[in-house]
Amino acid sequence: MLHIVACIKQVPDTKIIKMNPKTNTMDRASAPAILNPYDSHAVEEAVRLRSRYGGTVSVLTMGPPPAVKAIKKCIEIGADEGYMITDRAFAGADTLATSYALTKALQKIAETRPIDLIICGKMTIDGDTGQVGPGIARRLDMPPLTSVNKVVELNREEGYAIVHRKLEDGYEVIRSTLPCLLSVEKEINDVPYSTMTNMLRAARYQPHIWSVNDLPDIDKTQLGLKGSPTIVSSVWAPEKPKGGTQLEGNPQEQVRQLIDILLERKELFQGVT
Amino acid sequence: MNFEDYRGVWVFIEEKDGIIAEVALELLGAGRRLADKRKTQLSGVLIGDQVTGLAQTAFEYGADCVYVYDDPIYRFYRTETYMRAMLACVEKYKPEILLYGATSTGKDLASAVATDLPTGLTADTTQLDVEEDTGLLLASRPAFGGNIMATILCKKYRPQMATVRPKVMKALQRVPGRIGEIVEESIPITEEDIRTKVLEIVRATTQRARIDEADIIVSGGKGLGGPAGFQLIHQLAETLGAAVGASRDVVEAGWIGHHHQVGQTGVTVTPKIYFAVGISGAIQHIVGMQNSGLIIAINKDPAAPIFQSCHYGIVGDALEIVPMLIEGFKAALGRKEEADARKV
Amino acid sequence: MPEKFDAIVVGAGPAGIACAYELAKAGVSVLLLERGEYPGSKNVMGGVLYRKMMEEVIPDFHKEAPLERPIVEQRFMMMDKSSAVTFSYKGLEWAQEPFNNFTVLRAKFDQWFAGKAVEKGALLVNETVVLECIVENGKVVGVRTDRPDGELRADVVVLADGVNSLLAKSLGFHKEFRPDEVALATMEILKLDKKLIEDRFNLEEGQGCTIELFGDATKGILGTGFLYTNKDTLSIGVGSLLSGLIKHKIKPYELMEYVKKHPMIRPYIQGAEPQEYLAHLIPEGGYRSIPKVAGAGVLVVGDAAQLVNAIHREGSNMAMTSGRIAAETILAAKEREDFSEESLDLYRQRLMSSFVGQDMKKYKDSTHHFDKFPQYFEQYIPMMNKAMSQMLTVDGSSKWEKQKKIWRDIGTAKQKFKIARDIYRAWKVMK
Ligand SMILES: Cc1cc2nc3c(=O)[nH]c(=O)nc-3n(C[C@H](O)[C@H](O)[C@H](O)COP(=O)(O)OP(=O)(O)OC[C@H]3O[C@@H](n4cnc5c(N)ncnc54)[C@H](O)[C@@H]3O)c2cc1C
Ligand SMILES: Cc1cc2nc3c(=O)[nH]c(=O)nc-3n(C[C@H](O)[C@H](O)[C@H](O)COP(=O)(O)OP(=O)(O)OC[C@H]3O[C@@H](n4cnc5c(N)ncnc54)[C@H](O)[C@@H]3O)c2cc1C
Ligand SMILES: Nc1ncnc2c1ncn2[C@@H]1O[C@H](COP(=O)(O)O)[C@@H](O)[C@H]1O
């Protein structure tokens, strides 16, 4: 049976986040924690593939205990199982250490049910790197396929997948062996309003929760802050442009002025008929 | 790991269809500065099929040396093949700093290479500097959705790697005839080893003005009220021969496709003129267009942050202003059209 | 086949949560449906939570609930344009157990409270709007939600959907509001440093103060304002009867701006950053507006049943108590396996003999009274301010003369009689 695992993360909603201007730290209370928007598409894609090919969809997250909420959200979307690894030892991880910890958890999940496909979001809105997915793929020695905006076919028996990878000016059609890892674009699907059945399932669902000691053969030096090669040395507020000239007068006059200003650069408008 | 063994600044030279990607030239410019500060060489890594000839272009944009992996197996980018080439090269020549464009190819390759080496990788950098004496790379990037900037260091590992946003660094003036050293490299690799195959490449069929190349961009935001209001943006763009941009909220509302999105999670643009119409000016949008030559904002809220980031601002209702602009420009630019009309 | 529960509670405010909590505690299957992203996300309240009624649901809740500050001082400000007469009671007995009341922020508190119900076994489903009750043979048998496959069944549906209960309306339990039955309140949460709050309100660390505002806070329109201290925010709000707003052609946010700029209020909130802006209705029709609260397979609790004591700004406590009594009624009905209207009407009887019914009855005429006789707010408060000013201004004239002048200023003997009558009337409706 096909087994797809989506990696998901709970993130602060950076769209409405408030920063403390003095310390440049974020005011956690101001930003509700949400399921990383890109990851909801990863889960939805897994659910769609399950309805095409059958099988099981699991989700995995690494995060603090409240991240259980993000798992429940995935169950609402339609995932079957949720796994969470949570431990002080994981705190402060950069992408390298994150992908290491997640890999260990994936290996443990695979012990009970071999994994055919891993799906990640394109990126998280807090970390915003897109590096964790490919990192996991390398560690598990799976082909990483990033920027995927369509899954054309999965064939578990013959062990291949065909997907579209988005390019700057089109897409490429790629065939890869299974298992492999996909990082998916938002445009790959629309996440529909969840059904009541899934909502009730999610309300009742209790995820599998593991701490570091539940993961076999783990090298603790590769975890968390200790295992992270990159460190944040300083943060500052992004420089803001100073602001420009407000045009004056009634709308007609303002438009007139603007056109005059722009026509000083007439060369730019060449080729315009 | 002996840091002394790691020297030089490298740039991954992304190539497609026999042309070096713009971002690679920008990185050579940025890399040159770092290399000079460290008094060391700037090298490029060029991977592809029949690409050796492109090394000359890299020299003319500042590279001292280019490592070339030229083989039909590299015809299309694939993580597996490119990663192996890059890993072999890094292990053999040990650079101190290695930069990639933050394009889908560059990010994909860098993530894989970083995991295998292993080393730290800073994503989506927008500022780069290096400590002269230690060689420590100071890679700065927006974080938390652009709300802050953070400088990221990698103290314990070499090489230090970063992906760099396109359009942020400046390429050097080309020096025709500038020469450098080509180092041809190869690794044993056959198609049978590779688990991924590119079956087909489909170029986007519809012809759109590409916002990352346009001189003028007219961008619209939620303030236009709806798809109908957004039509005004298309009309103004057409009048000016401009490309159409959009804020994320507009893209998410489905008024226009993803590839028009300007900003942190969209495209970074640097047109000569940028119109922001009915866009509030969220930081995530600003970071994608702040380097434009001339920024014009139209917004009915005088307190909208966009006015802090523009050169000229009009406070007013876009639905009223834009039609007037279209009229005005048509009158000013469209003499020919009128003349044509008269001829008939 | 739609899933069936013993009870479905619509709306996770204090009323709904209290009801779900009690039901879950007794081991019956209960589903709590909330349209907000999470309980409290859409809820507005100035923020005084009464210890007693909460304790009847969760004893010792104050040891773990996210409370802002225990209130040690309650002030009442009778405001004129640039003056105010203030009464206050401060008692440090309120600073310790068992406490009297607390300020809370509903977004946090409701979430916590709902979490407690979930711990007891209630099932909570958020982001789901109940569209209507499913009625079969004159009996409510479930609800229809806005989700795909969104029908659910239950022996009893509890409507805890707040003041503008569309569900109770669609069952014909109550009519559209009249503008003089409902107040429109707006409030803001303003961020201010902890230490500054304590200095400005004369508080020891962690303690809280509430100020109720009358008179010019609402530009003399019948209504009240409030200013409450939270941990590191202030809650400020004004509310007035819809009828008053309409009559004076004033928009609620204009009143809000007016209060914030009022010279008696401004110093308290200076430099505080607006964090959230909210608007909400408050049922103020009182006893006479209480709709039908029990039907076959359905009960109505909290604001949905218009259980608010407008005079004392009590609502959440009545909501909780009504939710609790509804739960007890359902448990009893379940024992009898009888969810008919007659069986569930026990809820109404118990509710009416509880403090909720008693208080609602006691103040049944208050809002109508003040609405009918606007002079309380329009004339008497300014008059009181003027009197205090004259009395306390030291200008060389004797206090004796001052009193005489004040008495003279109040007007003719006829007017004096009218005031005396009004005071007596007010005392009668409030006593
Ligand atoms: C991680 C992250 C990444 C993001 N990346 C991007 C990104 O790449 N690009 C991006 O754009 N956003 C991005 N955002 C979203 C960004 O934060 C803003 O939400 C978005 O830019 C707002 O779009 P808007 O200005 O169109 O809409 P709004 O913020 O709703 O602004 C509409 C504006 O129109 C004005 N207006 C209304 N009516 C009129 C009228 N009739 N005439 C004139 N003006 C009018 C209003 O005053 C207002 O200022 C990102 C957010 C996050 C968290
Ligand atoms: C400005 C203001 C200040 C106040 N100050 C105080 C005070 O200091 N002390 C005090 O005790 N009381 C105060 N009150 C009154 C108090 O807020 C209410 O009496 C109390 O919240 C009532 O609780 P409830 O559970 O009945 O309703 P609500 O708290 O209104 O909860 C109803 C819930 O139902 C949900 N809902 C509604 N319709 C649907 C649907 N169709 N489907 C699913 N869910 C739905 C809503 O999202 C909401 O969560 C104040 C009110 C206001 C407006
Ligand atoms: N802590 C985490 N737990 C599970 N998955 C994660 C975690 N962090 C990142 N991911 C996955 O990796 C993708 C890219 O994340 P990032 O590299 O942080 O941009 C996300 O969209 C997720 O699918």
UniProtKB/TrEMBL annotation, chain A:
InterPro entries: ET-Flavoprotein_bsu_CS, ETF_a/b_N, ETF_b, ETF_beta_N, Rossmann-like_a/b/a_fold. SUPFAM superfamilies: Adenine nucleotide alpha hydrolases-like (SSF52402). Residues 23-219 form the Electron transfer flavoprotein alpha/beta-subunit N-terminal domain. Its cofactor is AMP. Gene3D superfamilies: HUPs. Belongs to the ETF beta-subunit/FixA family. This is Electron transfer flavoprotein small subunit. It comes from Cohnella kolymensis. The lineage of its organism: Bacteria, Bacillati, Bacillota, Bacilli, Bacillales.
TrEMBL record, chain B:
Pfam families: ETF (PF01012), ETF_alpha (PF00766). Transmembrane segments: none annotated. It comes from the Bacteria. Residues 9-198 form the Electron transfer flavoprotein alpha/beta-subunit N-terminal domain. SUPFAM superfamilies: Adenine nucleotide alpha hydrolases-like, DHS-like NAD/FAD-binding domain. Belongs to the ETF alpha-subunit/FixB family. This is Electron transfer flavoprotein subunit alpha. It comes from Cohnella kolymensis.
UniProtKB/TrEMBL annotation, chain C:
The keyword Flavoprotein applies. Pfam families: ETF-QO_FixC_C (PF26311), FAD_oxidored (PF12831). InterPro entries: FAD/NAD-bd_sf (IPR036188), FixC-like (IPR039651), FixC-like_C (IPR059103). Gene3D superfamilies: FAD/NAD(P)-binding domain. Its cofactor is FAD. It comes from the Bacteria. Residues 367-431 form the FixC-like C-terminal domain. Keywords: FAD, Flavoprotein, Oxidoreductase. Belongs to the ETF-QO/FixC family. PANTHER family: ELECTRON TRANSFER FLAVOPROTEIN-QUINONE OXIDOREDUCTASE YDIS-RELATED. This is Protein fixC. It comes from Cohnella kolymensis.
